[in-house]
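Thanks for the sequence, V.! I ran Radical SAM core domain-containing protein right away. Repeating your input here for the record:
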Amino acid sequence: MALKSVFDSSVIRAEFDKAGINNRFIPLIWKYVIQNPDCNWEDIPSLPSSAYTLLRAKFKASTSVVHSVFESNDGVTTKLLIKLQNGAFVESVIMRYDSSLGKLNGKPRPGGPRSTLCVSSQVGCKMGCTFCATGTMGFKNNLSSGEIVEQLVHASHLSTIRNIVFMGMGEPLNNYSSLVDAIRVMTASPFQISPRKITVSTVGIIHAINKLHNDIPNLNLAVSLHAPVQDIRCQIMPAARAFPLEKLMNALQEYQKKSQQKIFIEYIMLDGLNDEEQHAHQLGKLLEAFQVVVNLIPFNPIGSLSQFITSTNQKVARFQKILRDIYDIRTTVRKEMGQDISGACGQLVVNLPDKRSISNAAPLTDIEDIRRQILC
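Predicted structure:
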């Protein structure tokens, strides 16, 4: 039987309970492993002798390894290709920002340099979105909660991670139990990342949305809407047939009522398909009763697989103006990062290129500071 990740929270807690070992040792083990990734279990001080026996028999400090690291020419984006214990690969992306650059409500922003990690939750994806490279892989398998957390562990050796976005490979809410377990680890000691700094993106898995706030309060929810009407949504997102737009909006309304938080709406701009003025008006009317931030996403081509064309800057600007001026909906345009290393939105698909080295990266203005958007 394959050894489990020591960061598989529910597994290690169950094993410690069964062996009569106090769970208070678990965060201490995690902290030591993070600081000493190549450690042996015997190196960890002050554990009960039964804990060493159990760790040797059942767990590994890491079940995954960083296969390759790629630095973007933009100087602020790093993509990690991570090999799992079963031989499969996933990708994670580090994006560096400086949240003190620019202005907020006409005043200098507080803050400073920080990094956001884009995390994968599955190998491949079964949603089949036609604009997304990950969908071309099909679905391979869910990640364990430990494999999800290990992405954060690997990334933290390269940069101090302050924000997490589940916008990598896979549909997070289709791997619900591992997602929830992983986030509970990330928000506990020693990571202690606030739930308000974690965003889960979904195509709209209604039954999971209905549970999410109760299981993890204060989490940020992002919904990949991408179209204001059901027929266009189904055309570009086949899985949308299982989640009718009207029912999805009812679920989001209930989620917002419970959470009292803004919902982030992701909307990819596809020329001639969903980017006309009529679509902006339809989207504005659909969302006018909600507290949302709409994030317009320029389409990132995926080589010969692309059947879409990126919307022009003029169309994106007009779309944004309609939402802002007519419907008073806060609307941003996503700054694309890491396109040259296929690390931008919708481009994550496993390839096995040669390894590259890490280089120092300078921060840029944070144009997508999730916490700031919530407060505004």
